[in-house]
Request: fold
Amino acid sequence: MEVDRGGCSLFGVMDESGKRFSGAQATSAIAKMQDRENGLGGGFAGYGIYPRFKNCYAFHLLYDNEKAEESTERCLEENYSIEKAEPIPTRKKTTIENPPLLWRYFLTVKETKANSEPGQEDFVVSTVMKINGEIDGAFVISSGKNMGIFKGVGFAGEIGKFFRLEEYKGYAWTAHGRFPTNTVGWWGGAHPFGLLDWSVVHNGEISSYGTNKRYLENFGYRCALFTDTEVITYLFDLLARKYGFGFDVIGRILAAPFWDEIERLPESQREICKALRLAYGSALVNGPFATIVGHTGGIVGINDRIKLRPLVAARKGSMLYMSSEESGIREVCQSPDKVWMPEAGEPVVGRLEGAHG
Amino acid sequence: MVKSTPPFGFTIDRDDEKCIRCQACVRMCSNDVHAYDAEKDVIVSDSTKCVGCHFCEAICPTSSLTVERTQSQYRENFNWTAEVINDIKSQAGSGGVILTGMGCDKPYTNYWDRIVLNASQVTNPSIDPLREPMELRTFIGRKPDRVEIDSSGEPKLATEISPQLELETPIMFSAMSYGSISYNASLALARAASDFGTFWNTGEGGLHKDFYKYGPRTIVQVASGRFGVTREYLNTGAAIEIKVGQGAKPGIGGHLPGEKVTESISETRMIPIGTDALSPAPHHDIYSIEDLRQLIYALKEATRYKKPVGVKIAAVHNVAPISSGIVRAGADFIVIDGVRGGTGAAPKVIRDNVGIPIEIAAAVVDSRLREEGIRNQASLIVAGGFRRSSDVVKAIALGADAVYIATSALVAMGCTICQKCYTGKCNWGIATQDPYLTKRLNPEIATRRLKNLLRAWSLEIKEMMGGMGINAIESLRGNREQLRGVGLSEVELEMLGIKHVGEAW
Amino acid sequence: MKKIRIREQYCMGCRLCEIYCAVQHSKSKDLVKAYRGEYPKPVPRILVEEKDYLSFAIQCRHCDDAPCIRACITGAMRRDPKTGAVLCDEDKCVGCWMCIMMCPFGVIGRGREKKVISKCDMCIGAEEPACVKHCPNEALVLEDE
Amino acid sequence: MTKYIIVGSSAAAIGAVESIRQADKDGKIVVVSNEPHPLYSRPLITYLLAGQIDESKMSYRDPEFYRKYNVEEVLGKEVVAIHPEDKKVVLNDGAALPYQKLLLATGGRPIVPQVEGKDLAGVFTFTTLDDARKVGEFIKKNEVRSAVVVGGGLIGLKTAEALIARGIKVTIVELADRILSATFDRKASEIVEMALREKGCELITNNTVWKVTGRGGVKKVELQGGVEVDCQLVIFAIGVTPNTELAKCAGIEVRKGILVDERMQTNLPDIYAAGDVVEAYDMITSTTRQIAIWPNAHVQGSIAGFNMAGKTEKYDGSFAMNTVEICGVPTISVGLTDPQEKGYEVLEHYDEAQRAYKKIVLKDDVIVGAIFVNKIDRAGVFRGLIKNKTNVRLFKDVLLRDDFGLVWLPEMFRKHMVMGEGTEV
Reply:
């Protein structure tokens, strides 16, 4: 899609044991692949970074002006108890220019609004849809628990420094360096894209966008940004959170095996794959892409069904790495135990020990 | 008064230098246009009898014949065109309804010609269909709302999947009854569909016993006349289509004249030889949507829920809500036949004035079903004047699951759309039961040509999909972002749900 | 050997096979010239039989046990060792008509110009016999036996 | 290795050689011929005489035929005796050749009536190449301008035609009241007679030559009733008698011709006979009789050959048939063409303008004979119907049509014929 066009670099790292480490790794790995970006956008998602507020929805917001800030805060106050509100700390001395107002809020849903967990999540989603869709100049960057997205216009490495990521500790990080070809950079349009604890960094241009978008519309998702990342995020939200599919199944939906591959499968698997294509054909993501999806339970990397975009993975002990280029991994892990190129459509799944999904 | 008959429309131009008097034209023309004058050793042609089917042109070994359109000229008049004047003269003579064949030929906007497709450039790669797999496989039938997988132990599918038709290309042959077309034409459709992995449709004339072996690739129709409908017939087909309406003649029944009811047709239709086969305008057991639901379920019961049951309607003003009703009545697929859909015989006034174009109908039905969250409950098949593979691609991008072609299939078999199907004198051996004419259609050749057409269109569809960077037809389906309108008004764009050319995503 | 199979159900009686056969065996081998310029007019070696709506074109069947070869008093009628076709050497044929009498298909005729017989020669040298090539409905097909 | 001896070297012998070699690649084959010439076609002698062909065209097969088929030729020798008990044949030079299988294809010889002057120079019979050469030389040497042909049968007429072609004035003398009386009916005879007369040929019927006169050479013939015809050449063509003497002496059963079974074997083991010398089954008359025609000889020789080489093949019989073109009038006659008994149905049509005559003789709705004059192109179809004893009741009314053909046959039979499908015929 327009906003995502181009090369782009992706990086993801996690410690499956749950040990937390600083955002510096992700910053230097993505900076290593600077060739793949053009300075019009970079960003990070960190998981496990707000242990003090781990039961709160952490909203990262960007405002174009104070009026937007006021309207948004009014909206939040109406619906949530705000445990804490503060500007997101940034470093002043960087190359980053004209940052918008950046705030974060730690929120709990007022009981009058929703009391069950799924209900709360749906409520949060509707809040995000509302702010992003209706409040001019305000944009929710992330809205999950114990996680946050940091992104903006600039080279990814500089964005990492700007947001002082080395000062955060998380068990999983994803990073993105953008190379949009024909749009002016906009902070909200940078990656990762997030909804609840989902975050998506994406390299590609999906040709099934129209189909995916209209499919998602059936379920109330409004694709306001016209971006692939948005669509992929919602697809994950629908398939994983709402339908409860595991990532292997999601892989077989988003990057469905070809019919002749399906025909070669044993019968029970064949039936499943066929049923998935029948039911979720409109969720098939077509065209070139490599995507790393982060969520509370870990990170997942996936490629399109004919692998038109690069993705390489590596392991070292409990550490799992994914990157557009091996150089990104070598930058932070000189001698991995194993380095491999995932097959087209084969998800690489990093699971937080003890987590579900 | 002087007999005022409409002037004829064609002239036969014979290059006498090239004519070798072989008399192939004389022997072949079912309209007796050509005659050999032995005394003068020349062949003379009576243009007044010519219907413009071009068979003689095709058969002439020296290409000495050209069938040319000539119209005796009246004074120019935007309103009182030659067609209008001739129709009036003809009716003043006959006192009857003007019959015609094939689909509406009036110049209503053809939106396919006003829609262009997208292609990948630079930022994402187009896919070469000759090197990479490119999937056109299409399933017709109700899709599950959700797939459940039983993961206790070896993962197993826990959702029951409704019966589906599996197509290797999203193109099927639309309903043409044995009776309206010849045995050989039917046979060719059946064989081509079977060989290619798609489906053909019996139309309302029943299924000849010889064709039962093609049952697994046959959609059997249940129309208002109920011709040839038996339990065996229903169970032989792969799917059942309740025909409510037809694009060429919405709201009108069918009429196969007794002369065409030969022994074999009478057997297939289960009516006496030589009697007119009349299909009533409505189904007399369907006066409401509840009645339709009963019929759908009666047919499902009769086939033990093993076959998809669909409903075909003509595209009319209310097509979207009607479609929604049909889906809610339990149809597994819905067929919309647009105004350009063909027929063997229809009153000209109906053919040319009733119904709406399929492009708009396809778009509004797809949107409506999505809005109501029931799009997955039935497949959407669209029909009515699909002329080329790009029309198919555009229809699928608008939201159709598959298209039906019929006129194109007939053209592949030789038809030149002379619109005289109703006369039963089709020189190409298609729309006739005259054994002297039907043998002209060698079903082997016709099968080959139909398969070639399917193959060619499928290849082109793959090329277009590849150009868009799409390698599975699912990702084209409903992908209106790949479409742009050219020179269409706001309201047309809105109906079609597409943007205008020049607009990016 | 390759033989011409007749499929009467597809013969539409256009008689183009006769025309192309005659032209193939004409001097000019050109449709218009052969028919408009040559005298005597070229004669086909294939015959279309017609009755009501039934018709078929028939030419020498190139029988395995060919009575015409047995009956030939000159040895002109012989089997081509390469193709298996039954051919008549017009230089040897004296026009005794023995083969005409023997042929149960009635597909050997008398030549017009010389006193020799005229019969299908499978268009020796051509890729496909003219009748097969030009049959618009594949009522004649060349098949391997 | 089997040793085959074939006596005779015409159609039956060739048929036999071709079949033996199909079944037995190695067996030794010896062909003994009393003529000094290699393989040639006897029916062509009239064409040779007419100057239509030269001698180089006389060979009935490739001149290398015997060599290619690995056949040993013994030419110009006569077999004078057969010793069945020793399985030997004795030649006129005293040589004895042993055989394991013997085929007698000795053919027939012309009948010469015992009339006065039959030995005069200028009197000939006309069945062999030597005859043709002699007659040819005689004509040249004596500048023959007129000739009498005795006998209005096929050989007589073809000879007469040949002489006419050489510019000789010919008179045909026929004992019967018309020419070709054995194979034609009166109408057909008339048409041919008309053509002969138009070519200047004179026809004398109901008469015969009783005396040939002349000094040193023929000057005239005298007929019964005092009629005299001047001529320099007389050719006797009144018939042929089979050469059965050899067989008779060896104890082989002979009636008019040698008697054979379906496998063309005589009553003696390993001795077969074929061609003009045998009496074989006539499908129409249901009798055995001599049908001395070329196609029969080849088929019989071929059947004999297969059986001699150990394969079982049966001869299903034949019937009289002939084709001749006289003075531009092509004719074909098949089977029973002019039955005199009751119980036959005759369909006939005569086209005056084209002198085209077509006659079909039926018995119990089965065609048993046919005549075609001038329009003969599809006569073979009728021969086929006769051979197959096809019941024609359903299409009898169209048999005489010009466009009668296979399309009128019953569906199953037609499909079998045309498309090669259906039941065996």
